[in-house]
Amino acid sequence: MSGTVGKSGIVFNIQPYSLHDGPGIRTIVFLKGCPLRCIWCSNPESQNTYPEIGFDREKCIAGKGCDFCKGVCDIGSFSAAGANAELKGSCGGFREVCPAGAIQVYGREMTAEEIVSRAEEESAFYSHGKGGITLSGGEPFMQGDFALEILREAKRRRLNTAAETCGCCDTEILRQAAGLLDYIMFDIKLLDDERHIRYTGGSNRQILENLEMLFSEFPGLHKHIRTPVIPTVNDSGDDIGAINRFLSGRENCSYELLPYHRFGTGKYKLLGREYADIPERLDDELFRKLKAFEI
Ligand code: SF4
Ligand code: SF4
To answer: Residue 92: its pLDDT value, please?
Structure first.
């Protein structure tokens, strides 16, 4: 990655005017990189820190003589190379040359200034209902220095700041971020560590320690805790009830359950990966009952 360390990083999407990722109307900045590998992850293109390529073999018209992507980069043409190739640098050339829309490039290098300037353009809408900028991912604090630089720049411009984190991140980075945040969304998937490791690829120990740190050192920061409810993984009253009890009585805290969806399955195919064997849908009645554990 070029640029000053911390001042630029890899972003895979910026979504304006979001109503679902923090208070008010917000600009969501999706940073690449996550230390976990949740089997249900709906953003598989977020997980690696580097830019990646998605290739849709069904759209590719190489069979009709197209070879426009040949020679654009040293990984060769897509019809031959297939998907899941790591892009060197932030080259978006492949996407631009493909006439069939068969190539997606996930991730490009941006500076903190560029990102916050873009959010600021939309800030005319923020004044109603506490909107602002939200860092998301992936795990936004995996590119820790970059995330901090974005938050500092946002604060310099008096923007309201929020972050969505899986909590699996460096404690010192999270501590510094918390000092710059107006609101934090923090996921707890399971309290049972053995099953947490099985379904997310990582322990929940640091996640829970980080959450305790936020509760003890940042009492004024609102913590919105969320659990994505995944069929056969954590869709039991035992699991959700345990999280509810863990949070019960905490100050400045709310708890929300997020319904399972499969919006990301197509992206697994583009990346040449398999989606996990998870039942297609969560039982609506069961989810309605579990919602009673929200705080
Ligand atoms: S430019 Fe697009 S359509 Fe043409 S060969 Fe490459 S991937 Fe296929
Ligand atoms: S923590 Fe979020 S981004 Fe990371 S793998 Fe899990 S679902 Fe995907």
So the answer is: 61
pLDDT in tens, 169-201: 999 999 999 999 999 999 999 999 999 999 999
Beta strands of 206-290 (E only): which ranges? Answer: 222-229, 253-259
C-beta of residue 111 within 8 angstroms of C-beta of residue 152: no
- Residues lining ligand 2, judged by CB closer than 6 Å? 34, 36-38, 41, 43, 46-47, 137-139, 166, 200
Cα separation values, 155 from 41, 132, 262, Å? 31, 10, 35
Ligand that lies nearest to the alpha carbon of residue 56, given by its number in the listed order: 1
Encode pLDDT of 217-228 as tens digits.
Answer: 999 999 999 999
- pTM of the entire structure? 0.92
Using a 6 Å CB cutoff, which residues line ligand 1? Answer: 60-62, 66-69, 77-79, 97-98, 100, 102-103
Distance CA 170, CA 140 (A): 11
Locate the ligand 2 atom nearest the alpha carbon of residue 46 and give its number: 3
Average pLDDT value for residue range 99-128: 87
Taking CA atoms only, the protein residue closest to ligand 2 atom 7 is 41
The bound ligand whose nearest atom lies closest to the alpha carbon of 41 is 2
Q: Which ligand is nearest to the CA of 201?
A: 2
Rounded to whole angstroms, how far apart are CA atoms 179 and 140?
A: 15
CA distance 180 to 221: 10
Q: How far is the CA of 202 from the centre of ligand 2 (A)?
A: 11
